[in-house]
Design a protein that fits this description.
mainly beta; 7% helix; six-stranded mixed sheet; Jelly Rolls; 3 helices; Immunoglobulin-like; 716 residues; 52 strands
Length: 716
């Protein structure tokens, strides 16, 4: 709804949302970063890309691990829908034996006919645990495109209504064409976010004379979509590429061209900041030059139709009755940065009406760590009307960029304030520098530990919250943690016993609180890192996932375990110091000194770094509770940095040695005397592989970061 005067400044950016224009400036930074060193870690599987991201109901596909880290011996693909199954493929038996040779990382994937269209998740299970999730999309009408025209003169014909699926190559465009009819409207969409692609989509449409009719660029959080009305009948060429001309296995896309508008709501990705969105049933309102009248409570849905569009609403409010007014747009994946203006109607003695500015709001609360960013461009305003009367609410988008298209949806909700809280949990990458966070799964070795961070999003709720994982798989232990009234997150530490089996299981993080005399329970939503920070991306890219998973293994043992000697609550009065006895369990390769650094200390509590000498397995940690510490129960832990010697997958050497011994047994069989030449050749080749594997599995020096078990502190 355009208005003559625009009360908002132009050119506002999207905060932490990646914009291509900003990225181009950062390319040189990536080049500088490329030469930096990376700390070695204990191996943990990370899934970057599958060979196929689009599948159709009732079909079968060969799918392999296309890109990842520590993806050795991947034996399972597990999906979030039971109707999608994967069977590990097998290769021919090893020469001269019947020893099976599985094709690790390659699967036959079947999609049952009854699987609904939508976005689902896949995880890989291998030698080093269960991976982070990667999205796949089930659609009835897809076409796998193995090759595509690389020049505008040789485009690949596309079929309207089919999603054309492939990956882009570096430094090139993919060209398609279709026959348009004059007067008809066409929608062009590049699907990338829904399949966790690194692609920042860029699309352009040209006519038979080579004239560009329209073009658009997406972002790191929004796919590109544009609509075009054909002015002439004839062929149109669609060019697709990554906005930065990157490419490879992780740069997959689906191109969908349809007649009319195309909406695929089941493919929308949810980001962590959407956890705070209350489910409502909004009423759609049409664009008009007249302010829309609302009856409180109300929730409406509209759109920003241009960079200068502002929408206005009228409602009656009463003094002494506060209301919560919020815009929901950025939190549902729209590339917007909304602003609210509240004006009160003032009528003077002559009957002349004017509007008096009484409140404004822009960004919502900033709740983030260095990885999960819950800050949002959606304004949330608790408004106390100063007088009874008529009020005008103005909504506009401060993001005036046009590259993402001209229509962005939003919801406007107004009603009585509600008290609520929600939890969000994610696996913390094991490193002292959170900027190194990357997509990774979990590989809990025997004696190992892993951290889960839990955020609380509070809405007028300040009670302490007890957080736990009530049902853990056998061999795993996790002490409950507290989010105090003055905190917005806590950490849980899962530890594996010396008898933990090899298995993978879902985790459910639960919070319990007593608020206004009522016992309340919440289950945490789960989030995952999708892409790490790099020269193109200033922060890690995260999204919501269906669930947290944990994988444990009996094949490896962590060289170091750290825990408080006692599991009792540590009680301290303000203005005092207490010591916490620490116990270290050292195993093979874990003999070096350890530096223990406090993590998630509450306000007013300090703890200096503690160095545990290489010949020591016990220490005392001094905790300083200052006078300004708030009374309450808190949880914190220590991260131990140390160097270890670790052998990666020695079982591979064992298997190859067993194969060589089997060949020698065959050679000793008198009935195989005629095969000695062939057998001797196989033994010699196997001996070479054994020597190569010995070098690969030889114990290496690694710097690792080990979480210790939680300490619960009660400040009195």
């Amino acid at each position: 709804m355009p208005h003559p005067s625009h009360p908002f400044p132009a050119g506002r950016s999207r905060g932490d949302r990646l914009d291509v224009r900003d990225v181009l400036v950062a390319v040189s930074a990536m080049i500088c970063m490329a030469g930096g060193s990376v700390h070695a870690q204990l191996p943990e599987i990370g899934l970057r890309a599958l060979s196929q991201s689009f599948v159709a109901p009732g079909e079968s596909y060969e799918v392999s691990i296309a890109e990842g880290a520590n993806t050795e011996e991947v034996r399972e693909l597990v999906f979030s829908h039971p109707g999608i199954t994967a069977t590990l493929l097998s290769g021919p038996a090893r020469p001269l034996t019947k020893i099976e040779a599985p094709r690790y990382g390659s699967f036959s994937v079947k999609v049952a006919p009854e699987v609904p269209e939508g976005r689902y998740e896949a995880r890989a299970v291998g030698r080093f645990g269960i991976s982070n999730p990667r999205s796949i999309v089930v659609q009835k009408e897809i076409r796998i495109v193995p090759s595509v025209g690389a020049d505008a003169s040789t485009p690949t014909p596309l079929q309207l209504g089919l999603t054309h699926c492939r990956r882009v190559s570096p430094q090139r465009r993919d060209f398609y064409s279709f026959d348009a009819t004059a007067g008809k409207q066409y929608s062009v969409r590049v699907i990338a976010q829904a399949i966790d692609s690194q692609l920042i989509g860029a699309v352009s449409i040209t006519d038979a004379k080579g004239r560009t009719l329209d073009s658009a660029i997406g972002s790191d959080h929004s796919d590109v979509q544009l609509t075009l009305t054909a002015t002439d009948s004839g062929p149109l060429t669609v060019a697709v590429h990554d906005a930065l001309f990157r490419g490879g296995a992780a740069y997959r896309y689906g191109l969908l061209v349809t007649e009319g508008m195309s909406t695929l709501p089941h493919l929308r990705t949810e980001f962590p900041k959407s956890v705070s969105v209350v489910t409502r049933d909004p009423v759609a309102v049409d664009e008009t030059d007249v302010p829309v009248e609302l009856t409180v409570p109300a929730c409406v849905e509209a759109s920003f139709d241009s960079s200068s569009d502002t929408d206005q609403y009228l409602c009656k409010l009463s003094k002494g009755k506060p209301v919560l007014i919020e815009v929901i747009s950025d939190r549902i994946g729209q590339p917007t940065d909304a602003r609210l203006i509240i004006d009160r109607s003032v009528v003077d003695a002559s009957g002349t009406q004017t509007w008096q500015r009484v409140a404004t709001a822009e960004d919502g609360p900033n709740l983030s760590d260095s990885v999960i960013r819950l800050v949002t461009g959606d304004p949330v305003l608790r408004f106390q009307p100063p007088e009874d009367g008529d009020y005008r609410i103005t909504v506009a988008d401060l993001d005036t960029g046009r590259s993402l298209g001209e229509r962005q949806r939003y919801q406007l909700a107004i009603g009585p304030p509600h008290k609520d809280w929600q939890l969000l949990a994610y696996h913390v990458y094991p490193h002292k520098d959170p900027n190194t966070s990357q997509p990774s799964g979990t590989h809990l070795m025997r004696g190992g530990a892993r951290t889960i961070r839990v955020f609380v999003i509070r809405n007028q709720m300040s009670a302490p919250i007890r957080v736990s994982i009530p049902q853990l798989p056998p061999g795993l232990v996790c002490r409950p943690a507290w989010i105090a009234a003055n905190q917005n997150h806590t950490d849980l530490v899962i530890t594996a016993s010396d008898q933990a089996p090899t298995r993978h299981s879902p985790l459910q993080v639960v919070g319990e609180a007593t608020h206004d005399g009522e016992n309340q329970t919440r289950q945490a939503r789960a989030a995952s890192v999708i892409w790490q920070r790099d020269g193109y991306r200033p922060t890690a890219h995260t999204r919501l996932t269906d669930q947290l998973m944990v994988g444990s293994s009996d094949l490896d043992t962590c060289p170091i375990s750290i825990e408080p000697t006692s599991q009792d609550v540590v009680v301290a009065k303000k203005g005092t110091k207490v010591t916490v006895p620490i116990k270290v369990t050292r195993r093979g390769g874990g003999s070096e000194a350890i530096v223990l650094r406090a993590q998630h200390l509450p306000p007013g509590v300090g703890a200096a770094d503690l160095t545990i000498a290489k010949d020591k397995s016990e220490a005392e940690w001094t905790i300083d509770v200052k006078n300004n510490a708030a009374v309450g129960s808190y949880s914190f832990w220590g991260q131990g940095e140390t160097k270890v010697k670790f052998s990666v997958n020695p079982q591979g050497l064992t298997r190859e040695t067993q194969y060589r011994d089997a060949l020698k047994t065959i050679r000793a069989d008198p009935n195989r005397s005629g095969d000695h030449q062939e057998i001797d050749k196989a033994i010699a080749e196997t001996e070479k592989r054994i020597e190569a594997i010995k070098k690969q599995v030889a114990a290496k020096d690694l710097t690792i970061y080990v979480p210790m078990s939680l300490i619960t502190l009660e400040v009195q």
